[in-house]
Amino acid sequence: MPDLDTPLTEAFYYILLALRKPNHGYGITQEVEEVTQGRVVLGAGTLYGALQTLQKRGWIDVYSQDTESRKKKEYIITDLGKKAFTKELARLEELVNNGKMMGE
Known about the structure:
The chain is α+β, with helices and mostly antiparallel strands. It has a single domain (10-103), classed as Orthogonal Bundle (Arc Repressor Mutant, subunit A). Helices cover 57% and strands 12% of the residues. It has helices at 10-18, 25-35, 44-57, 79-103; strands spanning 23-24, 60-65, 73-77. The chain is globular, with a radius of gyration of 15 Å.
């Protein structure tokens, strides 16, 4: 299992953020694009590759799956994923605070 102290990629960070409530692939891409005001646009390959990796790490789970049409899946962040996200948030806050201190 990956070390929780390893920095997250920007895609992982925003996907975990988008999965604080159940969400499907298209919803994730829409939310990430909205939150970043269009700066981050997740392509299908990036999104679904990241979802697979996050599932393997145990950071997200399938919340529900529509078995009727297109097998649309909704995902949700797990407790372990929340822990990874929280550690990353603290790391980013440290970076910003250090930058502000040094910039003064």
